[in-house]
Amino acid sequence: MANAPAHTEITVQIASDRLTASVLIPAGYDRSLVSTEALSELAHAAGVVIDAPELARLEAICVAYQDDPSEVDAVFAEAALPESCGEPACVWDERFDPAIEPAVEAADGVDHYITNSLRLVRAGDVVATIHELQDEREGRDVLGNTIPVPRCKDGSIEFDPASFSSGIDGTRVALLDGVLRCGNGTYAIDEVLEVRGNVDFHTGNIDTQGSVLVSGDVKDRFTVTAAKNIEVRGLVEAASLVAGGDALLHKGMTGREIGALRVAGNLEVGFLGETTAEVLGNVLVRREIMACTVTIGGDLIGPRSAIIGGSVSVGGSIDIGKLGSPSEPPTLLRVGCLLMLEAELKEAKHHAHKLERTLTSLIAEEEKLKAMPADMSTQLTERRKAVELQRTEATLHLTAAIDHITELEDQQASRVRVDLVVRTAIYPRVTIETESYSVTVPVPIKGPVAFGWSKDRRLMMHRLDGHWCDTQAIVRRAA
User: Fold this and answer.
1) Is the peptide bond before 448 cis (omega within 30 degrees of 0)?
2) Which parts of 217-324 fold into alpha helices (H)?
3) What pLDDT digit, counting tens, does each position of 326-364 carry?
4) H helices within 142-264, ranges in order?
5) 95, β-bridge pairs
6) 159: three-class secondary structure by DSSP
7) Of 338, 332, 306, residue with least CA distance to 319
8) DSSP for 398-454?
9) Which of 66, 103, 314, 454 gives a 20 to 30 Å CA spacing to 341?
10) pLDDT digit string (tens) for 48-85?
11) Whole-number Å distance between alpha carbons of 159 and 128
């Protein structure tokens, strides 16, 4: 195979990416023809841009060839590359940095129930700081063509202006409470924290100032706390749920005696089993409440459901399918429990106690000022007048607070109402109880039946197709 012909003339070669240009000088070439001017003219003819750095390299190549006329293949021109990576620098707060796996250290290691893979944000949190590029410059290849500034493959990081404010110092500050999400390179805050799956060791416990939607289950021992609403489309196991608004549990909750549920608004649930629950609003149950301890401030609505075992206290009306079951587990239904009134009364007493302490302090100071000489300073005289006025106002406020407590206590005594309808049946060992009255059903009672007060405050039962009768008469006949 023949060898490739050697170069016999000086040539200029440009790399395929146009990032470099080289000069090739054959060995033994006439050194009088190897000059900076000659090489520069060849480079110009090839389209290479020649500036001072390129001229300096060509001169050095010529000087070296004069000393040693060996073959030369040397780069004399290089492209000027862009000076930036193409994106502003984003410095994350470590709580929200997507590159950091969140973890919470307990005293004896990581508590995997507390560890949370969701980035929970509160209004006012500084999530990140953007450092804008100051010296971004395009590049140039050896032919003088522009090399654009390269952009990151994933695109620039954007922050949704509806979720974040931008400070003049580059900070991105959260405007909402919720969870940090990223879609198509844009970060935003979801006010409804959506858990796409189960609440388990992957997510850790949930605690947010917004609402929560769980598409799967809430597993044993985990907690979900939301300042607003909670919706769980799967099953709630022996977990704890706290909702500042309403709660919707599509399937239900099986607490196995350790599960707990607190709802400040209304609750809609498939079933409750072995769960302790407190609901300040209304409860709509589709199947049963079994072996639970439940307190309801509003109405209980479940015309096709049942209360079986346990204890249920209801402040409003009750419309239920069955009370108890044929197996006759002890079942307690307390009616007329005025939870909201009791909470208001407790707060009123606390307020009155604070007023009493304030008034006692003012009276002591007033007595001390009165004991001072009559010619005391103008400043002390003014202080005595101010204390007298404050004491008078505190006395009026305390009197009003005591009157309010008395009014609430009277309401508590008179407003206990019974509005109970049982659609299908009441089984033995069911106890219906009010603040001052209790009756345990000794025999099965077929529904539909209603319960209410008589004029002389006796608990009466009324078959919806018959007449009213005293519940104590049922007990006497059974005996």
Assistant:
1) yes
2) none
3) 988 999 998 876 556 677 788 889 999 999 999 898 898
4) none
5) none
6) strand
7) 306
8) HHHHHHHHHHHHHHHHH-----EEEEEEE-TTEEEE-SS-EEEE-S-EES-EEEEE-
9) 454
10) 999 999 999 999 999 999 999 999 999 999 998 876 55
11) 10
Written as one letter, the residue type at 468 is W
Contacts of residue 134, defined as CB under 8 A and 6 or more positions apart, other chains included, come to none
Contact (Cβ atoms closer than 8 angstroms) between residue 211 and residue 228: yes
Q: Give yes or no for a contact between 352 and 336, defined as CB atoms under 8 angstroms apart.
A: no
- Alpha carbon dihedral 110, 111, 117, 119, in 10-degree steps, equals -100
How far apart CA 456 and CA 261 sit, in angstroms, is: 38
DSSP state of 33: G
Q: Give the separation between CA 144 and CA 154, rounded to whole angstroms.
A: 29
Q: At what angle do helices 378-414 and 339-370 cross, to 10 degrees?
A: 160
Q: Rg of the chain over CA atoms, in angstroms?
A: 42
CA distance 80 to 318: 82
The pLDDT value recorded for residue 155 is 43
Distances (CA, A) of 409 to 133, 295, 338, 346: 69, 21, 11, 11
Kindly state the tokens that stand for 234.
């799967």
- The letter for the amino acid at 105 is E
Say how many CA atoms lie within 13 Å of 381 toward its Cβ.
6
Residue 102 has a CB neighbour count (10 Å cut-off) of 15
* Residue pointed to by tokens 């009672």: 445
36-45 helix and 52-67 helix, angle to the nearest 10 degrees: 130
- Residue 427's DSSP bridge partners are none
Number of neighbouring beta carbons within 10 Å of residue 138: 13
Q: Are 448 and 422 in contact (CB under 8 A)?
A: yes
* Residue type at 210 in one-letter notation: G
Measure Cα distances from 295 to 81, 97, 242, 280 in Å.
72, 42, 14, 8
- CA–CA distance, 358 with 388 (Å, rounded to integer): 13
Residue 46 near residue 14 (C-beta atoms within 8 A): yes
What totals of helices (H) and strands (E) does the chain contain, helices first?
5, 38
Spans of the chain below 50 pLDDT: 1-5, 86, 104-110, 152-155, 476-479
Copy the structure tokens of residue 393.
Answer: 């106002």
29: helix, strand or coil:
coil
